[in-house]
Structure formats: structure tokens, C-alpha cells
Amino acid sequence: MATITASDVVNSIKAIAGTIDFASLGPYRMLDKSYLQHYLSAILNWDFRLLNLTGATHPVQLHPEWPTYEEQTHLEYGRYERRIEDEEKSGYWPADQGTTGIIDFAIGDYERPQIGIELTMEYGWAHERIVYDFLKLMDSRNPFRAGISYNVLLRPAGFVDRVDEPQHLLDNMNRAVEDASTRLGTRICDNERRLVFVFTETDEDARRRHWHYDQHLKTFVKGLPNT
Fold it and tell me: What one-character-per-residue DSSP string does 117-155 give?
């Protein structure tokens, strides 16, 4: 079994980001994050053989929908609660006695995985969903050495034809990190944890533009990350 690192995961995500072409699939309105989840997991398992159900030749290292808290398996990491501010606004916050947070994929030992991965694929900006993903990956109570988030924005009608639209998206991305940080407070992870947050915006003509979070500058910048 090959050893997988956070950089390996990021390289697989960069390969998807550089080639994604949803319009060529024909009917595509059914696309959501579950397709992205299965696609990425297939790539990772093909390259690194992380998932095995046919004998104890090597341990299972890829864990879908990994719970941050679970009594059955004695997982005692982050817990979260939903707070409702008004009829139109609610969000998840860290809590001492809340419910589990589900991570799309965790890689490593089930009891203490080293890599957490969250994914979204949306037709528009889904602020609260992205904030919650960031919050779980940045929560110091969770055991990850690296938190990776890949987010795809599908634009069937093309990119928004406004000069300030890229800056508007950039502002939303930075606000998502800020909101997650504010909710975590003292529970936020330190710089020992590698955070790789990537966004790809793509349209029917397979035009693509990308942003990633610069952990040193603490802001999103244009382009895909180096690995």
C-alpha cells in the first residue's frame, strides 16, 4: 500500500480542477457533491489502494462520512449545534454537548485520521455549507494534520458578466473563513495544521478560474495551490 500525503490529495484535486468539463457530459443538472465525492475517492483509491473489503492485506485508510463524535467507536472529537438566529438564518457552531460533525472523507487510522476532506458542488454560492465545512476542518478538537476543502461552482449560464464579480466571489470566500474562525474562537487550530481550501468556477464552455487559500497571507488568492 502506497503512503498518501496531503499533497497527494491536493494533486488529485488539481487534476480534477484543471480538466472539469460538466457540459460535455450531456444532461448534467443532476450533478451535486456526491458525484464529486465518488470521483475523487475513485481516483485516490486507484492510486493508493486506500479502501479494502476483501481481506486483511492492508488496513482501510479511506473513511467516508467520518464522524467527529461517535459512542459506538469511541470517537471523542468536535461536536456541533445548530443555532437559529431568525426564520431565514441559521448555522452550525462548536458545542460541548452537541451532535457529531460528518467529514466527507477522512484518511488515515479510523481512530485518529491525519487528513480531513470536505467537498461541495453547487450552482451558486452556499455560504453556510462552506462555513460549516471550514469550521470542522479548522476545529482544533479534530485530529487532522491537514484539512482540505474543494468547492466547485457550476455556471450553466456562463460567468456573471460583471467587472466586480471575481472580487465579489473572493470576498465571499474570505468571509467564510472569517465566519468559521469567529465561531471557533479559542478552538481554532494553530498553523501546524495545513489548510488547503480550493475553489473552481466553471461554465458550459469549460472556462475555469480558480482560487486557493494562502495560509500565510490568511486570504484567498487567484490560481491553484502549489504542492
Answer: EEEEEESS--HHHHHHHHHHHHBTTS--SEEEEEEEEEE
Q: 0.85 exceeded by the pTM?
A: yes
Q: Tell me if 115 sits within 8 A of 146, measured CB to CB.
A: yes
Cα 58 to Cα 60: distance, rounded to the nearest angstrom: 7
Residue corresponding to grid cell 471523542: 76
Cell (9 digits) for 81: 449545534
Cell numbers standing for residue 51 = 479502501
DSSP of 39-91, one letter per residue?
HHHHHHHHHH-----SSTTS---EEEEEESEETTTTEE--EEEEEEEETTEEE
Return the SS3 of 223. coil
Q: How does pLDDT run across 107-165, given as a tens digit for each residue?
A: 999 999 999 999 999 999 999 999 999 999 999 999 999 999 999 999 998 887 666 67
